[in-house]
Amino acid sequence: MSEADRIFKPTADMIVKAGCIIRAGGLVAFPTETVYGLGADATSESAVASIFAAKERPSFNPLIVHVPDMETARKLVEFTEQGEKLAHAFWPGALTLVLPRKKDSGLSLLVSAGLDTVAIRMPNHPIATELLKASGKPIAAPSANRSGQISPTQAAHVAQSLPGKVDMILDGGPCAVGLESTVVDACGEHVGFLRPGGISVEKLEHVVGPLIFPDDAPDAPKSPGMLTSHYAPTLPMRLNATEIKDGEILLGFGADCENSTLNLSPSGNLNEAAANLFAMMRELDRDGFTRMAVSPIPQDGLGLAINDRLKRAAAPR
């Protein structure tokens, strides 16, 4: 199939088909008012892992979860007072809110890179809204381009950047804003500014007062994934372990890990390993052991992202 054959006009039938692809764990690129997103079911670890694989993303930074309405959003996150103000003022629109995840949200751990927060947005685009409704799922969607390349604002840009990686591309024409959403941390009393985008600082401060910027205060909210030690379990970690030492519990990978308590992928599949990473790290972070050992992970494909996250988790703290 040529890349042109993956691009479809967003008719009602095609949007229904795209929704089926999302529910089945596939990838759909779709337009928003900001840029084209690479969408997958945000409740499926394996579907979210396929986003990172398609983008060849070198690290597991949190992804933005897209929702069609406030009712859906309230099932996934806890709205703070500041979060309520911002959602009321700017949703639907080009603003992403980082808020506490609800324990029963059902969202993938990989979608928020193991954090107890979720980056969430309600897009202001009819095709995005219809796709969300057709799928019946919250959709995780970073920009639909290979990691490090320019964000796509047209369907053809997606096809050029991700050849053979997307099951369907919905062509909604050029994006109106053409710039990613602004991201803010609305978990606390004061709102932290994480990423510039389609909503200006001035507009945000008009609603919630002065924002906190990382350069202004060392303890200000920072973009997840940028800290050396982050997403760390309570137990210390030892990486590239080929055997278990006294007091250790082993997180294995591959067929030759008979002594592992859990195995990221007995068959050595990196997509499966990525999908299992955060859930298994949490499960092994238990009393009765002095350290978590982790088997070697290949440094290719999603292995780069897995090793990046493991190194952050194992960093001195």
Could you say which structural class the secondary elements and strand pairing correspond to? alpha/beta
* CATH superfamily grouping of the largest domain: DHBP synthase
Strand line-up in the sheet with most strands: 1-8-2-3-7-4-6-5-9-10
The N- to C-terminal Cα distance equals: 50 Å
Largest sheet: 10 strands, mixed
The residue-averaged pLDDT reads: 92
CATH class placement of the largest domain? Alpha Beta
Helical stretch tally:
9
Name the helix and strand elements from N-terminus to C-terminus, one letter apiece.
EHEEHEHHEEHEHEEEHEEEHEH
Give me the CATH architecture of the largest domain, please.
Alpha-Beta Complex
Q: How many strand segments?
A: 14
List keywords for this structure.
2 domains, 317 residues, ten-stranded mixed sheet, alpha/beta, DHBP synthase, Rossmann fold, four-stranded parallel sheet, 14 strands
TL;DR of this structure?
The chain is an alpha/beta fold and 317 residues long.
